[in-house]
What does this fold into?
Amino acid sequence: MKPPKLIHHGAHEGVTGSCHQLWMDDTYSLLIDCGQFQGVDEGLGGEDPLGLDFSIEGIKALVVTHVHIDHVGRIPNLLAAGFEGPILCSQPSARLLPIVLEDAFRLSISRDQEQLERYLKVVEQRIIALPYDHWFTLHQTDAVECKLRLQPAGHVLGSAYVELEFGGADATSPRVVFSGDLGAPHSPILPDLTPPERADLLILESTYGDRRHEDRAHRRERLQAAIERALADEGTVLIPSFSIGRTQELLYELEEILHEKIEAAGADAKPGKPAKEGAVDIDWPQIPIILDSPLAGRFTKTYKELQGFWDEDAQHRLDEGRKPLSFKQLITVDSHDEHMRIVDHLTETARPAIVIAGNGMCSGGRILNYLKAMLGDPRHNVVFVGYQGQGTPGRDIQTHGPEGGFVMLDGCRIDIRAGIDSVGGYSAHADQADLVGFVTRMKEWPKAIRLIHGEDQAKQRLAEVLEARYREAGKEGDVSIP
Ligand SMILES: [Zn+2]
It folds into this structure.
């Protein structure tokens, strides 16, 4: 059997707009993801970052690897173009996807409630939730049979890599695997991924193909130290965060810090007594933790409802009666009025508090009001826990803040006097070693690998490392960059 035809409609020249079309026979194909181009990649898919520059004829189904916008953002346009097939995804993704699409619809298409509800109804009718680790037949004719299986990818809740197996009369069951975005080990809440047994063709992401992550096993301790440094001069600690994945991980780790502090205080038989740690003396059990993002609030609520998909450590906390995503000190802010009241209150009083707000790179969202009000005051602090893209306000604050520079927010120049800190080890992506491990931990290494979803340098470097591994192991494999 000849290798199935494959065309990349995104994420082959950059890291966003993921969309790949794989033909099951001469007529019928399926799409893996239908993401939006973002940031520097806008324009790769034509004038309109949401535009579809391909025909939908013969596309039988859309498979969604996970619900990040660069993997699902063009679904509205796919539907508008007349796509009538099902949207296949994991069970958790089936719950999270409508929330993501609702937000995207409001932001980029229309705020009309009736139109939105009509659209969401269509989306929900199309979504088919597939359990992990089960084969499903997608397409069957006399000549060919195509089956699909989803496996946890450890990236965000619901993330999956996709295995496709081609059978039929003249087939030797070749297997094609799409990695989607792969997660890194030691991610809270999510079980670590297990690589596939085999692949004839692997379509592999390469976001961090040229990098190794900072140590992840002790990042919680580093987060705690950064927050304690920040709180030492009172004031608010602002943590800009993306609403899906990162926010829930942060809450989970903050709950752990609080749990330890309260246990330690209990051991002293003086509840509420601040625990002494080094030179910093922070009254953790009294600090409000404010989640100021309605979208992150919705995701967090859904994450809680999907407890059955949490990892062992998270299950263990639940068994102990703990509430990792809804602990006592957590305050969720919903309305805009309430949001503005909290911004004003914390700005004036500089009362110690931890605020998590979106978006993660400070290019929009409620974090902006906090930054505009607080960046000029040395009592406040910003702690970054994620990558800040080039050209984003987050990157400017991170770079120029520590030397007393300024940032432009909403057209205003804001001088930075607040403390700025960054904690590494929070990426939701596999690094070079994890990506190589995804390949070399397979029982049968892929015969061919195509690298996508990475900057040129990342793809080049990953290709070199993979080729070297194949050579060392005396195995045959073709690594290419489309
Ligand atoms: Zn992703």
User: Anything to note?
Assistant: The first strand starts at residue 6 and ends at 10.
